[in-house]
Design brief:
- The protein is α/β, with parallel strands linked by helices.
- It is 40% helix and 21% strand.
- The chain contains 15 helices and 21 strands.
- The strands form four sheets. A seven-stranded mixed sheet has the order 1-2-6-5-3-4-7, with helices on both faces.
- Strand 12, helix 10 and strand 13 form a beta-alpha-beta unit.
- The longest helix is centred in the C-terminal third of the chain and has 25 residues.
- The chain is globular and about 65 Å long.
């Protein structure tokens, strides 16, 4: 079905289109069957379609015998943490994360708040496609109850981390601007900052689901945050995506940082205290390699996606994991990207170093990255274009762990199909911004030519 995407990230589609109440219920009964009709934690971001999706989702879950614990509007990591707390068999977050406002979706997780493994994803999709859900009789239907403690619990867990020093943070008297984009972080993030002892400037922290900017916190979307951070004399500006599993930074001078810096700065701060290995995706900046070398630890690469990062982290017992999107994973809290805990990490870093953001940035070797995306007619076309690119670039040094990554000594470019929308993403990195842009632009032109050839042949 057009614009209906089933991937490692879950399910996403357009409201009024592919993501219909019928399809949502079908996904719900498939997931309920997968987890054997056991307890499920359900929560959602602030999108205006959330209530509609919630009704269809809960109906399908209850029909398979699941008891539903509804935690209301919460960030994805908060929902998954509640699932871990109560030992639920699974959880479902109603969100399309950084996708536009007309999209919504389901992030699926099984025991202990872990996103679906590759094997569980296959089982889920088989049940969905076969329509062989296990519907129970009237006397075995599940129940629904609400739990309004999720946000308080998440904050409490963060404040108990051994690397949080409240006296030190409060002594620094930090002023922080937070832009939640009217998304799921609108309530919890200002609350956490105040409990950390920060003076808080709230921007777009009304949880009404009306996004005043792109739900993806890219540099173009953060103009207001940049302006307010500088004019109000804040030490740092922080911004979330729609479900608050990501965090990006703005300096005290109102300069937006690449999302790549979130993980790099936090890794440089925490790995020095833990001396454990790191995990990052194939398209995350080489800054992580430099951080790993600095502390004599190993950096392990995975395909793009939190599930892949988590799987590798568990295999090697990693101290930290993440992606260049601004998502960082703290295993002592939960094995998923957690933009809320990242707030605490950045605040603690500023307090303990007594430096400003740009001073901290200057301590890490600098690379320049360019990121572009090409809209595709469908996921099938995306796949065909990637296959063609593999042939075109076959004589280069390639990494095909996730898409097609061309590697040189001083630069790289990665081409991959998005798992969340019908686009191909192109990331490049080099020692200069012009070289990164040239590499990205030339790759995009090649891919557009390949797309034209693919569509003409069809």
């Amino acid at each position: 079905m057009e614009n209906l995407i089933i991937s490692a990230s879950g399910v996403r589609g357009t409201i009024g289109g592919s993501f219909s109440p019928t399809e949502i219920s079908r996904f719900a009964t498939a997931f309920g069957t997968l987890i054997g009709g056991q307890t499920v934690v359900v929560g959602r971001d602030t999108r205006t379609s959330g209530e509609m999706v919630r009704g269809s989702l809960i109906s399908g879950l209850v029909a398979t015998g699941c008891d539903v614990i509804d935690v209301g509007v919460c960030p994805t990591p908060t929902i998954l943490l509640t699932s871990k707390k109560i030992g639920a068999e699974g959880s479902v977050t109603i969100t399309a994360s950084h996708n536009p406002i007309d999209w919504n979706g389901l992030k699926l997780a099984t025991k202990s708040g872990r996103l679906l493994s590759a094997d569980a994803q296959r089982q889920f999709q088989e049940i969905y496609k076969s329509e062989k859900a296990n519907l129970v009789s009237w006397d075995q239907l599940g129940s629904v109850e609400t739990d309004d403690s999720a946000i308080d619990y998440h904050i409490a867990q963060i404040l108990e981390l051994d690397w949080i020093n409240l006296d030190q943070i409060r002594h620094r008297s930090l002023k922080v601007a937070i832009d939640a984009g009217n998304g799921a972080g609108s309530m919890i993030s200002p609350m956490l900052l105040r409990q950390l002892g920060c003076e808080v400037i709230e921007i777009n922290c009304t949880p009404n689901g009306i996004f005043p900017r792109s739900s993806e916190p890219n540099q173009e979307a953060l103009k207001e945050l940049c302006q307010v951070t500088k004019s109000e004399g804040a030490h740092v500006g922080l911004a979330h995506d729609g479900d608050a599993d990501r965090l990006v930074l703005v300096s005290d001078q109102g300069v937006p940082l690449s999302s790549e810096y979130t993980y790099a700065l936090i890794a440089d701060f925490l790995i020095g205290r833990r001396n454990g290995n790191l995990v990052a995706t194939v398209s995350t900046s080489r800054m992580l390699d430099d951080v790993a070398d600095k502390y004599g630890v190993e950096l392990h690469r995975t395909p793009v996606g939190v599930g892949y990062v988590v799987e590798k982290m568990e295999q090697i017992g990693a101290a930290l994991g993440g992606e260049g999107t601004g998502g960082v994973i703290y295993p002592e809290i939960l094995h998923t990207a957690d933009g809320i805990t990242s707030i605490a990490a950045i605040v603690q870093l500023l307090a303990s170093s007594n430096k400003n953001v740009m001073d901290l940035v200057s301590l890490i070797p600098r690379y320049w990255m360019d990121k572009k995306k090409i809209d595709m007619p469908s996921q099938d076309v995306s796949e065909a274009v990637l296959d063609s690119a593999l042939t075109v670039f076959e004589n280069d040094d390639l990494d095909t762990m996730d898409g097609v990554k061309r590697i040189w000594d001083d630069k790289w470019v990665n081409i991959r199909k998005s798992g969340t929308e019908p686009v191909i993403r192109v990331f490049s990195e080099a020692r200069s911004i012009q070289e990164a842009k040239d590499l990205c632009n030339s790759t995009v032109e090649t891919l557009k030519s390949l797309m034209k050839h693919v569509t003409d042949c069809n």
